[in-house]
Amino acid sequence: xxxxxxxxxxxxxxxxxxxxxxxxxxxxxxxxxxxxxxxxxxxxxxxxxxxxxxxxxxxxxxxxxxxxxxxxxxxxxxxxxxxxxxxxxxxxxxxxxxxxxxxxxxxxxxxxxxxxxxxxxxxxxxxxxxxxxxxxxxxxxxxxxxxxxxxxxxxxxxxxxxxxxxxxxxxxxxxxxxxxxxxxxxxxxxxxxxxxxxxxxxxxxxxxxxxxxxxxxxxxxxxxxxxxxxxxxxxxxxxxxxxxxxxxxxxxxxxxxxxxxxxxxxxxxxxxxxxxxxxxxxxxxxxxxxxxxxxxxxxxxxxxxxxxxxxxxxxxxxxxxxxxxxxxxxxxxxxxxxxxxxxxxxxxxxxxxxxxxxxxxxxxxxxxxxxxxxxxxxxxxxxxxxxxxxxxxxxxxxxxxxxxxxxxxxxxxxxxxxxxxxxxxxxxxxxxxxxxxxxxxxxxxxxxxxxxxxxxxxxxxxxxxxxxxxxxxxxxxxxxxxxxxxxxxxxxxxxxxxxxxxxxxxxxxxxxxxxxxxxxxxxxxxxxxxxxxxxxxxxxxxxxxxxxxxxxxxxxxxxxxxxxxxxxxxxxxxxxxxxxxxxxxxxxxxxxxxxxxxxxxxxxxxxxxxxxxxxxxxxxxxxxxxxxxxxxxxxxxxxxxxxxxxxxxxxxxxxxxxxxxxxxxxxxxxxxxxxxxxxxxxxxxxxxxxxxxxxxxxxxxxxxxxxxxxxxxxxxxxxxxxxxxxxxxxxxxxxxxxxxxxxxxxxxxxxxxxxxxxxxxxxxxxxxxxxxxxxxxxxxxxxxxxxxxxxxxxxxxxxxxxxxxxxxxxxxxxxxxxxxxxxxxxxxxxxxxxxxxxxxxxxxxxxxxxxxxxxxxxxxxxxxxxxxxxxxxxxxxxxxxxxxxxxxxxxxxxxxxxxxxxxxxxxxxxxxxxxxxxxxxxxxxxxxxxxxxxxxxxxxxxxxxxxxxxxxxxxxxxxxxxxxxxxxxxxxxxxxxxxxxxxxxxxxx
Length: 989
Description:
Belongs to the RNR ribonuclease family. The chain is of the alpha+beta class. It is built from 28 helices and 39 strands.
């Protein structure tokens, strides 16, 4: 290899590498050229030289100079910029995002590329910092700057070359700022946690520091040291290195070979919500999920980690545990500074009761039993031997009071435990000097590592959210826990909005030069109205209907034309794609798009002109489609109804105006559409949906009620379903490889095994059929209890939990038979009708616009790989939004019940050795009643085959409680002193 460099014109030079490659006896000369520039600026506002060069030589748009002319000072008074190494980005990205000292940061291009190759999610977060004008992060393209480009030396590794390149950037900036600064002296501090690289930098006269050293020279450095990740916190030892608590993970080569030859399996770990020492992994090779029991077999895996598991011998296969084991009851007296306690096995340690130990020990022997019941429930067991992808994120919890010493002076960092809000996760050990100060606070932590010789994962403190049980802290906590993006929209995003703001109006369609506007159909003469929940402001959809001369009906669904404002590949589009969906909490809404669009310009408000995307059918009297048309349109809604107000108007026979008559047509046709779906096998499942009423003056929750569904709810639902089905067919016809669709897979029979077994034991003669969705629907209709009208609803709720989750997908990912939506009993489906709050619908709108020739479809929605990335994110965001919404309801229901203890009806839905789970329909909540709250724990006998728990209650009477039993319970709200969570406490009457 021969290298040389030559000067070109216009500030360019080129370096070339010449390779000679021999193939088939011949020699081939290969020349690779790398172009370099001498006019790449430093981007510092203090540098007059670079400003003058750019003003003189640059053409077109000038680059923005971002680095402050008056940057932060150290204790010693040094004004400085920061150059960061790759390991700082990878291990301390949350510090860079959240800590106030990290401004005016220079990211060498070499670092950016290394981060991209090692962690794409962190790379995206780093790009977000660079785009944020507030933080003043710049990327310096050292690989294209003549002054900083270096070639790789002979026998030098690529890592060593890159380290040298990063040091070159720090050195060049130091010299450059000394030579070209304005009035202020500005130094360069190179932050690097690689000791060898730091030593080499110092030898080259670079001010190189570790994170600890840098923080120690800042005015508030002592407070900042607690924020340093444990795995790069030099000198901090969390554990006893002589203790080996967990098996080491297999090597990558062994894992790859094992997966290939079928001796190892990969899947996602799901930890039981009732026993944190038990998890399952679903893999295609087995009919039932693989069962993983005990901390040794779980082997440091977190819930939702992608894990590699190894099957255990058949003599170790067992049935799932029937004992409740909570993390808060295991090792609650552990010392955060001591690793000498016994390991947590299947039975645990700490304050587990003698009764629980006996029950767990009995379960360990069940695998040797030959009873039919045990054999029926037996599952293959496995152990975790590797982690493919960690699910680690920001976690919210509170300092465990028992881990904070009463004589802690707060002068030195000490270890303590953080109990997380998510009860299936282990506590995290952190070091902080402010443990006492953080008691009673919701705090955010990050997991850094979980070594094999540590019983607990190690992490570090990030920030506080506020007092436990304050509405602000609890709301922010649940958003963080469910990974919901809730920060305000950035300036780059807001800059994409129309300049007219609130004053934007629909342009003149006639006197316009815009060819797209001329394609719009003027539908402002149609009697369009919207029907939504009360006080809805982000109105996605509106409808109209009218009779036709031939006896058929014209029916239109009009959807907010969000894509008129959200153009592909803009900052606004990228933010919407990242958020994926709006999130609805009890007290607030986290918007996918800025409020100007969601509640104003896109919202189909009444009495004003709005752009829409319309689907218009001709339907016969039986609601069969005669023809369908799709068009971009302009509409003017006549009225915005709530469900209740629309129902009242339809039912009022004195109302005979055209708008009311059109709603009556819609209602009549919607009933026929629903019957068609049910006849085809659509499922009518249930979930306990409640609404929390807030006080209009104090915003405090004051009442809970079950949501009432009216005929108008179904009216809107049926036509939204029809629009989604019609659009799905159209976009699939045009884009068979990349159409944005939604599928719902049929549930495996194993999902319903336990529920059917419960029915056969507790309700003989009743069963659920799974041959098809129609068979399932019909069997659910037959499962009635004449003595209890609510039983059928209860069974539908429990059946819902046995179903697979629906998912978005790109049409090229599956064969057409797998497109089917099992719950709706249709062969193809998408989401088109809510683009204000769902990004899937935005993509469907763009694809439909391309399908009808309105505009060309952007490449990002025609590329299979890019569509796969989009659907993966929106599936994750959709699940997170659902869980966050439910968590918000649970929190506020708990607040309502604080001062409203009362007796209510409940239903037993689960039985364990040491407790029961009861669903209370009034509040839509379920609560765990532990054995010690029921009666004498020593008298309890659990009959697993009958799903029945027998015990002597607190009054000395013998009681039997079984699944499906109706029970009376006292419901009140209590605060869990260990986790800080407030939850419903149920006491059996």
